[in-house]
Amino acid sequence: MYTRFASAAFAASLAALSFTGAASAETDVPFALDWKFEGPSAPYFLAIDAGLFADAGLSVEISEGKGSLDAIPKVATGAFPVGFADINSLMRFLDQNPDAPVKAVMMIYDKPPFAIVGRKSLGVETPKDLEGKVLGAPPPDGAWAQFPIFAAENDLDVDAITVEPVGFPTREPMLAEGKVASVTGFSFSSTLNLKRLGVPQDDISVILMADNGVALYGNAIIVNTDYAAENPEIVTGFLGAIAAGWKGAIADPGAAVDALLKRNPAADKELETERLQMSIDANVLTDYVKANGLGGIDADRMATAIEQTKSVYTFSAEPEMSLYFDDSYLPDAAARMLQ
């Protein structure tokens, strides 16, 4: 199965992570992404092409999205049994829709890519530099949703920041043209989109919220909880294949991006490989994940994240981790180690 990939070591690592399935016939599991088919989604396509989902008895079709606020309702309504979305957006969604059957079950971005991406030539290099300038922010953007926490942690005068609502397609072009001085977004998306638009690397500043006082987690695999309760083995098999896909992508990012390019042939392989590597290095393969495997969360850190969210958002009901995250469907830690 794995001879199509470049190295014997890579093939062995995938083979070792195969999950023999819960069913003899493949079960269709539609998977809703939060965004377009770009480098960080390559591990999921690799899991398809390497037969990792098939080994779990699953046939997975992946659909792109338009942000977490698009992906979460798709799963909550049952249109998709599984999806990929920002857990902080999920917390607020569940507060506003307390009976919605949706919950995170596997953390992927242990360190979230929420960022302010600016241009040094326009005077943006530090959080305080945002004051007196124009910030472009798409209203459904996950990073923009966390901006109040970032602003509070960095004592920013938000009244001194002009916020320009922008669309996702126009966000980086407006920054490249100097119409805004910075934008909210995922670090790996906005940075490389600017690079593709011809902005010099040394003119791009990336202010990661996680490096500036924000303790939040990032995107996770989410499930429809009614579906999960009825199909626990399917969900666990799905999560095992996700972990195996990420392990394969870490071992050979180029092979993962090749799988992506089959679905998005217009993508630039070099750029998307760089984007994938950025997500691995900064967001996925953290010290916590190296020690504990992909997917779990630290209860104390999550408690801090909830407290930070409470500082800028008024919950209707008292928030607690069990409302938003359930680790009971995760494969054992050994199956989730990425190196």
Describe the structure in your own words.
With 339 residues, the chain is an alpha/beta fold. It folds into 2 domains: 8-111 and 216-336, D-Maltodextrin-Binding Protein, domain 2; 120-211, D-Maltodextrin-Binding Protein, domain 2 (3-Layer(aba) Sandwich). The protein is 42% helix and 16% strand. The protein is built from 15 helices and 10 strands. It has a 5-stranded mixed sheet, with helices on both faces. Helix 1 runs antiparallel to helix 11 (232-251) and helix 2 (42-49) crosses helix 11.
Write a concise synopsis of the structure shown.
By secondary structure, the protein is α/β, with parallel strands linked by helices. 42% of the residues lie in helices and 16% in strands.
How is this fold's topology laid out?
Blueprint: H1 8-16, E1 27-32, H2 42-49, H3 52-55, E2 58-63, H4 68-76, E3 82-86, H5 87-96, E4 102-107, E5 114-119, E6 134-137, H6 142-145, H7 147-153, E7 162-165, H8 168-176, E8 182-186, H9 187-196, E9 204-208, E10 219-224, H10 225-230, H11 232-251, H12 253-263, H13 269-284, H14 287-292, H15 299-312
Parallel strand pairs: 1-2, 1-3, 6-7, 6-8
Antiparallel strand pairs: 3-10, 4-10, 5-8, 5-9
